[in-house]
Amino acid sequence: GGPASLSRFRGALVAGVLGDCIGGEFEGAEEVPMESVLQHLSGLEDETKGNGVLEYSDDTAMTRCVVQSLLTRAGFDEQDLARRFAKEYSTSPGRGYGNGVIQVLKKLSSSQLSDVYQPARDQFNGRGSFGNGGAMRTAPFALTFPDRADVKRFARLGAMLTHSCSLGYNGAILQALAVHFSLQGALDLPLQFINSLIAEMEEVEDNKDARNDARILKEAEKPFCERLHRVRDLMNRSKVSIEEVISELGNGIAALHSVPTAIFCVLHCLQPREGLPESYGGLERTIAYSLALGGDTDTIACMAGAIAGAHYGIEAIPQSWIRCCEGAEDADVNAERLHKLYHQL
Ligand code: 8NA
Ligand code: MG
Ligand code: MG
Fold first, then answer.
1. Percent of residues in the chain assigned helix, strand, coil, to nearest 5
2. Which-ligand-closest: CA of 254?
3. pLDDT confidence of residue 50
4. What confidence category does residue 345 fall into, taking pLDDT thresholds of 50, 70 and 90?
5. Can you list the pairs that 198-204 forms with residues at least 24 positions away whose Cβ atoms lie under 8 Å?
6. Suppose 219 and one of 93, 97, 116, 223 were both cysteines; which one would form an S-S bond, judging by CB atoms 3.0 to 4.6 Å apart?
7. 342 lines ligand 1 (CB under 6 A)
8. What dihedral do alpha carbons 6, 135, 257, 108 form, nearest 10°?
9. R_g of the chain computed on alpha carbons
10. What's the CA-to-centroid distance between 223 and ligand 2, angstroms?
11. 41 with 297: CB under 8 angstroms?
């Protein structure tokens, strides 16, 4: 479809869920042979499976809160979103949340909270979390607001409810921007796509808080820009090993070690690659490749899935995969609602 078509919205929201559900199998594994990935994926085509046998985790649980809040409030409402996060956690605490964020979610349930951003600020001795929990749930902002300034502003605020370190919320901005550009068809020109992201992040990281956090954590002056330059170097090379991707970009739970990685997965899989089945389309390649990196596989595949889904559209997603994943049908229905809201705003 054309820019911001319904197919792209459905692709983005559904493929994000699939990445989470399918990636859960390998979460935290140090090494994941591609053979195991392909075996896991071909198991999904087995007709006896289906009906949501693969459960979603915190990534999708929180994304669903963002979607419901944006739809119900027809825009961003931090009080409403904070309430939804807290309620979701108290209803299903076993979805695999990060160790730190659980404290925030418990505090957000308190009725006498005057500032919903305060619990996040208190994390890690006042430094805030740099985990990828803000980035993993950020795609709906790109699917709600057509204006790029709004995408950036609300992705940041949405992440800051749990992640007050700039390396956490700037990762959420980067992920939202990647979905935003992909939705416009920008992945048709991959080099322009990565250059646009770098240009945007140059601005986002050009402030005192970001520089201060980067210095304390001994990162480059503009950490996400530096990583995006590495992504551009890697994507211009004809051959890249999994080991190099992991050592250059990372596969961990920090936003800095996973958002640029997810973006690389999408770019790398725009074309057929050795080791991936020829029968696979780009979206299948992206999910498979993300899992083969190991580490925080559900979250990296969730983020890569959302970006890739916005590019390839819903038609690129195998029906059998959708049937296997809890929450995929819901995501499809909600994508249509977001598409309507987006074209109203
Ligand atoms: P978070 O805010 O608890 O951060 C995750 C972890 O990052 C923390 O538990 C800390 O270990 C570390 N961390 C973050 N900020 C700091 C800091 N300033 N100083 C020191 N350490 C810090 O939770 P989140 O929502 O960001 O976490 C998201 C990830 O955790 C997702 O991958 C999600 O799926 C989940 N998860 C991951 C794994 C895994 O093995 N990769 C397992 C279970 C859950
Ligand atoms: Mg998870
Ligand atoms: Mg994870």
1. 65, 0, 30
2. 1
3. 67
4. confident
5. 198/225, 198/228, 198/229, 198/232, 200/148, 200/152, 201/170, 201/173, 201/174, 201/177, 201/225, 201/228, 204/152, 204/170, 204/173, 204/174
6. 223
7. no
8. -160
9. 18
10. 24
11. no
- Non-local (6+) Cβ contacts of 93 within 8 A are 102
Give residue 79 CA to ligand 2 midpoint distance, Å. 24
Model pLDDT, residue 1 = 83
DSSP state of 187: G
How many whole angstroms from 104 Cα to the centroid of ligand 1?
12
> pLDDT, tens digit, for every residue of 91-129?
999 999 999 999 999 999 987 889 999 999 999 999 999
pLDDT surpassing 70 at residue 52: no
- To test the pocket of ligand 1, the residue of 30, 92, 127, 129 to mutate (highest count of ligand atoms within 8 Å of its CB) is 129
Q: Would you say 154 and 141 are in contact if contact means Cβ atoms under 8 Å apart?
A: yes
Expressed in angstroms and rounded, the spacing between residue 20 Cα and the centre of ligand 2 is 6
Please determine, for residue 197, whether its predicted confidence score (pLDDT) is greater than 90: yes
Q: Which residue in 228, 243, 199, 192 sits closest to 31, CA to CA?
A: 243
Residue 85 CB–ligand 1 contact under 6 Å:
no
- Euclidean distance between CA atoms 317 and 323, whole angstroms: 11
CA–CA dist 231, 209 (Å, integer): 24
Which of 98, 77, 304 has the alpha carbon at shortest distance from 182? Answer: 304
Model pTM score: 0.98
For the chain, the first-to-last Cα distance in angstroms comes to 20
Distance 3 CA to ligand 2 centre (A): 30
279 lines ligand 1 (CB under 6 A): no
